[in-house]
Amino acid sequence: MAEPDGANVSLAGLLSTLPAHEAGGPSSQEYQIMRHGFLAAALVAAGLFVFSSAQAASAGPKIAVVDVQAVITNSHRGQEAKAALQSAAAQYQTQAGLDDKRKKAMALKDQLDKADTKSASYKKLLAQYQDAYGELQQGANEVQQILQKRQQELLTPIEQELQTVIAQYVKDNGIDILLNKGASVISTTDAYDVTTGVTEALDKDWAQLQKTQAPAASTKSGH
């Protein structure tokens, strides 16, 4: 049996959804921490499209390509944010009782599939199923809104730090034109790809950052 109208229940983060299944509800999903659309804005803000006329006149511009999404996804900051978002998703789904609501909708759908469409109870059973699925969808939408807010909180400091890191990387490596691989480059060779270097630059202070955060966390837990 087809789902009622509006059955696509989503818990979209930047890149993930919690889809409604034929069985009647969403299943657990990993939540990626990257947003489409951030990349282009970050590139412009970081001054990535830099052109040095002096160097270009003597030897031609030095061009490089970076996969900004891969930088964040593979960086320590990105991995930490992803884990935090996944933890929050599990917590909020439990608090909202989504699993129980999904099971209720599935049970009603199973009954509905087996019921005689001409029976007196069919219309009542159909209404019960639609109500149950509506409750599931409403709960999932509420969790989605919470997760989107949490995702923004996690991404903002990473975006800010990455803009600073890339601007410095461009300067240190004498790059005249740096293109975002995911936004405007159709094809490139590995010789022009600086994604690994930028990721390493973003992670450069990670070990020291963990050392400074650990005492603060211990002090906070001791109070």
Description:
The chain is mainly alpha-helical and about 220 residues long. The chain has one domain. Strands 1-2 form a two-stranded parallel ribbon. Helix 5 packs across helix 6. The protein starts with about 35 loop residues before the first helix and ends with a helix.
Record the SSE blueprint.
Layout: H1 38-45, H2 53-59, E1 63-66, H3 68-74, H4 76-95, H5 98-114, H6 122-172, E2 177-180, H7 195-203, H8 206-222
Parallel strand pairs: 1-2
Helix pairs in contact: 1-6, 3-4, 3-7, 4-6, 5-6, 6-7
Q: What share of the residues does DSSP label as strand, in percent?
A: under 5%
Low-confidence stretches: 1-57
Based on secondary structure, the structural category is mainly alpha
Radius of gyration: 24 Å
Please, how many domains? 1
Helical stretch count? 8
N-to-C CA distance: 56 Å
Look at the structure and give the mean pLDDT.
Answer: 74
Q: How would a textbook summarize the main sheet?
A: 2 strands, parallel
Order of helices and strands: HHEHHHHEHH
Shape: elongated
Count of beta strands:
2
Q: In percent, how helical is the residue content?
A: 55-70%
Question: Order of strands side by side in the largest beta sheet?
Answer: 1-2
